[in-house]
Amino acid sequence: MRKRTFALTSAVALLLGSTINAVPANATDNKFWACVWESCTGSSTSGTITWLNRTATLSGTVFKDEGVDYSVTAIFDAFAGTTKVDTQTRTSRGTDPTMSIGFTIGDPDLVGGIDRIRVQICENDLTPPFCGVQQNFWR
Questions:
Q1: What is the 3 state secondary structure string of 60-100?
Q2: Which whole-number Å values give the CA distances from 90 to 12, 26, 101, 135, in the listed order?
Q3: 80-109 tens-digit pLDDT
Q4: Pairing mode, if any, of strands 116-123 and 98-106?
Q5: Which helix (H) or strand (E) holds 32?
Q6: What is the C-alpha to C-alpha distance for residues 78 and 117, in angstroms, rounded to an integer?
Q7: Does residue 3 contact residue 100 with C-beta atoms inside 8 Å?
Q8: Cα-Cα-Cα-Cα dihedral sign, residues 20, 26, 31, 36
Q9: Residues 7-49: pLDDT tens digits?
Q10: Cα 137 from Cα 128, distance rounded (Å)
Q11: CB 132 within 8 A of CB 72
Q12: Cα diameter, the chain
């Protein structure tokens, strides 16, 4: 009886787990982040990379210090090996310190797809802008 109950419980848990997370079977997730300052105080970007077959979907936020009058730009570069395939930028200009982002990056026609995303964030109050260290995230 215990074996049957365990088997039934396991089957239900497996079924629920597979239906609740309705993402493509080949999709995997990574967290991403980048900061202007080494201490990660001030401007930053963070979120989730969902790796798809040939592209990736990013969702998250761009954050800038509240009350500053300059814009902040997050730069996202997609690579296949050492070849840059695509670039997306998101700039926060308004008075709201947190801006939501969500987009797809990469080339859906590229055989093999992308395998790395480089993330960097820059404060645009200086010329040239002051940028944090580039962060790389691999499939």
A1: EEEECCCCCCCCEEEEEEEEECCEEEEEEEEEECCCCCEEE
A2: 42, 27, 7, 16
A3: 999 999 999 999 988 889 999 999 999 999
A4: unpaired
A5: strand 28-35
A6: 5
A7: no
A8: negative
A9: 333 333 333 343 333 445 557 899 999 999 888 888 999 999 9
A10: 25
A11: no
A12: 73
For residues 54 and 83, is the Cβ–Cβ distance under 8 A? Answer: no
pTM above 0.90, yes or no: no
Pair of tokens at residue 1? 């009886």
User: Residue 109: which residues within 8 A CB-CB, separation 6 or more?
Assistant: 54
Which structural domains are found in the chain, ordered by start? 24-138 (2.60.40)
* Tokens of residue 43, six digits: 């401007």
Q: Are 116 and 86 within 8 A, CB to CB?
A: no
